[in-house]
Write a structure and sequence with these properties.
The structure holds 2 protein chains of 2 kinds. By secondary structure, chain A is α+β, with helices and mostly antiparallel strands. Chain A has 32 helices and 24 strands. In chain A, a hairpin with a 2-residue loop joins strand 7 and strand 8. The N terminus of chain B is likely disordered. The chains are: A alpha+beta, B alpha+beta. Chains A and B meet through helix 1, helix 2 and helix 4 of A and helix 2, helix 3 and strand 2 of B.
Chain lengths: 905, 110
């Protein structure tokens, strides 16, 4: 009650100031009059009475002042005064204000942009019910890579055991995406859509309701019902968003599936993994019951292929924690269960463990580290901006020292002066925060545009309330941070000394502080600049890698059959042959080929050849990644992979002729070091176990970086598609002219050959490679941008300080000049001073930069983390900046006319 | 800031003002005169501390002010005790009595 009354009274004072003040006057005057009259009754004269009352009761003016400054409203009032004064001060010096706002806005804008990315990718809750309870249970495997489960998937048997034994979870569900990545919805043009097979409880566990229809039931699973739930997007594109879709059939892989539900637009699950292939294939757009995978015909006794080795470990498990159970507790329980299973099923589970990971962390995956690094960089940038502003304010504050001294002399308390200075900086900070939030919009666009495709949820980045609040808080904190230094500094100055001697003394004493700040700026800039240089050099190194083929003038696309498992090999071979012939007739086409896989970007397992003629079996310890792929047409010519020995495949290498292979250098060196491999014979390590024939090596080609540009080449064996009969969906066309112009012709030719094949978009090989370096390009761009900003800030900082320093010392310069110092001496005097600040900062910065470079060691490629070029380059650039930023103010000093300067004094 | 009354006065002044007003509503000067009379001149309040205390009590809702004509046909703000003020006065008086008795016992013991 009394708080309310207090507020009400305060408001009355604020808004009816005049009336309140009059009442107070009247009351106090009344008091005085009554006291005087009393005294006069006792026989004093009026004059005498007034004097006595004053002595006894104290001065009424002081009383009034005391009464006025006690309530909260007086605080508000002085704040308002400070604010108006602050605005006046900022307007008085528009250049300074604009510069300060710009500096801070850049810092805040960069932070807001990175925060919005961080928020979208990591922090924003996933659109499921109570998403903080959702976890992924990922299998870990301690076996060597050749055998290990690498994608965290588990077998159905283990899943059932987990579900039976675990008590820390409310429920567990499973799903998988593999094995049915190509789905055709036969409408006008076939389309490839990702699907997921899910257990009946998945949607319920995640707490999502379908927009239309219902989710799967246990019965759907038991009866292996061909039912499907569509994503909102697919529903729109295939059914035009019509309600009739429910209960209708949709044609998938040539079979009808009944639509039983449609998910709401924001529902996405499972999220795309962070690899490029996955991104190209796109989001999961439909969901089917776990038991309905058409490429599998499990027996009724074994509905989930428990016993089939390949079918065993492929299920992803999502689990909802019981409320108030921590991930740590769940982890402890799963550890126990895993140990129990390892004991129970030593054959399959001995090396397996389980890791409980929060769903949002699982989705963000490997992006977490670079994102945190990015946030660290922008925070550093903000720190730099704050240091910079502190320097500028310090410089300007010194010029105002006299004003502040006068304030102190006429009775302003220290706190009052600090408050006034802080009000000014906070005012500036808030303006800059607004400007920064405006800058964040375009900055986010830039980040999203530059970023590699592989960041999950990045496309959800928005400037929302959370981002705005963040920018505002950041503005507040940083303005307090940079305002406090000058405020403390000046409020502590002794007004006596200041008013007596003018400004020189404060000037000299603030210089130490400014030197420190400028030094800090140079140290931070060096850290950013050196790290950026390392990152950019890594990027350049990666770009300079010879991929092992000539990526210019190549077009590539993916040609898939609607149901590859049901397409006879002869039909595929026929299509490839006709495509090869027809594409060859297009003017400008030089070579055409197809291949199973051009790149193998995921971690590859270690393998060995099953048998090499004249060699003992290879010991498991020396196994290394080894890949097989099939080619048809002029694949090697189209890619321009050089032939080193032997021959390329010819049309004579057909199904009836003896099996042949072309191998790459890595494989030749592994099995026949120093020998000519042509004519040697080998047998594959064929997991399908259907090939027991000797394969003769007919050619040796150069290595290409098929394992990703940054990884060493792998041993590779190329076989002929016509002999092996597998699909070779990747088409490669070498052109003599600009490949992009041929793309439409090639596309229509392929389409005319067979209406039912699925064509992906046609891209140039250079774009494919660019995608592989996208992450590095992103880092290099951002780091380059940040360090350029840092450089700019450091230059502004040192310029500001030197400018101010020169201004302060004009009289001294006058004296020196009058005694015969020439311009050169003066310039060198100031340059030395500037270098002293910068030099100390750079020395500290070098240590910090070396340390931070060791932190990003793993991100580097082709340069060591102590790369002298990067460090010396950054160092000399900063020295150059310091020198030139100091030079101009210093030269101004030499223009001083000694007469004017001395009169100044 | 202006001179502050000592802690003792600060603590007790509020109580004294409340006591004064418990007898009869009066204006600022009236309060000071009454306190002076009742204390037989021991306490002479200066205007600063008096009005500061009045302002505080009014904001806390212990007293209420109202403009009224005085006997000399002037206008003055008369303060009266509120319900809450009366309760506070009772509490403080009791507490004060307890403390004084305790201090007296200690002093007599030595």
């Amino acid at each position: 009650m009394s708080l309310l009354r207090n507020i009400a009274v305060g408001l009355r004072v604020l808004f009816r100031k005049k009336q309140v003040s009059q009442e107070l006057d009247e009351e106090l005057n009344g008091f005085l009059q009554m006291a005087v009259e009393e005294k006069m009754k006792q026989g004093m004269s009026r004059k005498e009475a007034v004097r006595t009352v004053r002595l006894e009761r104290g001065s009424l003016e002081v009383t009034k002042e005391v009464l006025r400054t006690t309530g909260w409203e007086s605080f508000v009032e002085t704040c308002w005064q400070d604010l108006r004064f602050g605005v006046r001060m900022l307007l008085k010096n528009p250049g300074f204000t604009a510069l300060a706002v710009l500096i801070l806005a850049l810092g805040i804008g960069a932070n807001a942009a990175v925060f919005s990315v961080l928020h979208a990718v990591l922090l924003r809750p996933l659109p499921y019910t109570a998403p903080e309870q959702l976890t992924m249970l990922c299998v870990t495997d301690s076996r060597p890579r050749s055998w290990a489960v690498t994608d965290g998937s588990t077998s159905y048997r283990d899943f059932l055991e987990w579900r039976r034994q675990a008590h820390t979870f409310e429920d567990l569900a499973i799903f998988y995406k593999r094995g049915w990545s190509v789905v055709t919805l036969t409408g006008e043009e076939p389309e490839k859509v990702q699907g997921a097979f899910v257990s009946a409880n998945l949607f319920t566990l995640m707490g999502v309701q379908p927009l239309l229809g219902h989710v799967f039931t246990e019965e759907d699973l038991q009866r292996r019902e061909h039912v499907v739930i569509l994503s909102h997007g697919l529903w729109q594109s295939r059914f035009g968003g019509l309600l009739q879709a429910l209960g209708h059939d949709i044609n998938i892989d040539g079979k009808p599936w009944r639509v039983v539900g449609v998910m709401p637009p924001q529902f996405r699950f499972p999220f795309l993994a962070g690899n490029w292939e996955d991104r190209v294939e796109g989001e999961v757009q439909l969901w089917a019951p776990l038991t309905t995978n058409p490429s599998e015909e499990p027996s009724p006794s074994d509905p989930f292929n428990l016993t089939r080795p390949q079918g065993a470990a492929r299920f992803q498990v999502i689990a909802r924690l019981n409320p108030k159970i921590t991930v740590r507790a769940a982890q402890a329980e799963m550890d126990t269960i895993a140990a129990r299973l390892a004991f129970q099923y030593p054959d399959s589970d001995k090396t397996l463990g389980v890791q409980v990971r929060r769903l949002n962390e699982y989705i963000a995956g490997e992006m977490r580290r670079p994102l945190f690094l990015l946030s660290l960089c922008v925070l550093l940038l903000l720190l730099l901006a704050c240091t910079n502003l502190a320097t500028l304010f310090l410089a300007r504050g010194a010029a105002r020292a006299r004003e502040l001294a006068v304030r102190a002399a006429i009775g302003a308390t220290r706190w009052r002066v600090v408050r006034q200075l802080l009000t000014e900086s906070v005012l500036l900070g808030i303006i800059a925060g607004g400007a920064g939030a405006l800058l964040a919009g375009p900055a986010v666009h830039l980040v999203v545009a530059l970023s590699p495709l592989t960041v999950p949820r990045l496309d959800e980045t928005r400037i929302d309330t959370a981002v705005l609040v963040f920018s505002f808080l950041l503005a507040l904190v940083s303005s307090l941070a940079f305002g406090l230094v000058p405020a403390r500094r000046f409020s502590a100055a002794d007004p006596h000394e200041l008013l007596k001697t003018g400004q020189q003394i404060t000037a000299a004493s603030t210089l130490g502080m400014q030197g420190l700040l400028v030094g800090t700026q140079f140290a931070l800039s060096l850290v950013l600049l050196a790290s950026a240089s390392l990152v950019i050099r890594s990027f350049v190194e990666v770009l300079a890698i010879n991929p092992g083929f000539q990526p210019d003038h190549i077009l590539t696309t993916r040609v898939q059959f609607t149901n590859p498992d049901a397409t006879p090999p002869a039909r595929m071979a026929d299509y490839y042959q006709r495509a090869w012939e027809r594409l060859h007739q297009i003017p400008g086409v030089q070579a055409v080929g197809t291949v199973g896989n051009i790149f193998f970007l995921e971690e590859n397992q270690n393998h060995a050849l099953r048998q090499v003629e004249g060699h003992p079996p290879e010991a498991v310890g020396s196994w290394a990644p080894l890949v097989w792929t099939q080619v048809s047409g002029d694949y090697f010519r189209a890619m321009a992979i050089p032939l080193l020995e032997g021959r390329y495949f010819t049309p004579q290498d057909g199904p009836e002729s003896p099996p042949v292979a072309i191998i790459n250098q890595s494989l030749a060196e592994r099995y026949w070091p120093g020998e000519d491999p042509v004519g040697k014979r080998l047998k594959g390590f064929d997991p399908r176990g259907r090939n027991d024939e000797w394969v003769t090596v007919v050619g040796l080609v150069a290595d290409m970086r098929s394992h990703g540009l940054e990884r060493a080449s792998m041993a590779e064996i190329y076989e002929v598609q016509a002999q092996r009969g597998e699909a070779t969906p990747n088409l490669v066309v070498r052109t003599s002219a600009d490949p992009v112009q041929l793309a439409p012709t090639i596309r229509s030719t392929l389409r005319s050959l067979d209406k039912s094949v699925i064509l992906s978009g046609i891209t140039t090989m250079q774009d494919v490679l660019r995608e592989q370096t996208a992450a590095r390009r992103f880092e290099a761009w951002l780091m380059g941008l940040f360090s350029a900003l840092a450089l700019l800030l450091a230059a502004v900082g040192v310029y500001g300080v030197m400018h101010y320093f020169v201004t302060q010392r004009i009289p001294e310069i006058g004296v020196r000049m009058a005694f015969g110092a020439c311009g050169k001496d003066i310039v060198s005097l100031f340059m030395q001073r500037a270098m002293r600040f910068a030099g100390a900062g750079l020395a500290v910065g070098l240590v910090l930069a070396l340390w931070s470079a060791s932190l990003i060691k793993r991100m580097l490629f082709g340069v060591t983390n102590t790369d002298p070029l990067s460090f010396l380059g950054a160092l000399s650039l900063l020295i150059l900046v310091a020198l030139s930023a100091a030079y101009f103010p210093a030269r101004r000093a030499t223009k001083v006319d000694p007469m004017v300067a001395l009169r100044y004094e | 800031m202006a001179e502050k009354p000592s802690d003792l006065v600060q603590g007790t002044l509020d109580m004294l003002i409340l006591k004064t007003l418990a007898l009869e509503p009066t204006h600022g000067y009236g309060i000071s005169v009454r306190i002076e009379q009742m204390s037989k001149g021991v306490f002479r309040l200066n205007a600063g501390s008096l009005f500061l205390a009045i302002q505080r009590l009014e904001r806390d809702g212990l007293i209420e002010g109202e403009w009224k004509p005085t006997e000399n046909n002037r206008r003055a703000k008369y303060y009266a005790l509120t319900q809450k003020g009366r309760k506070r006065l009772n509490n403080e008086t009791r507490e004060w009595g307890r403390q004084v008795a305790a201090i007296a016992r200690i002093l007599e013991a030595s």
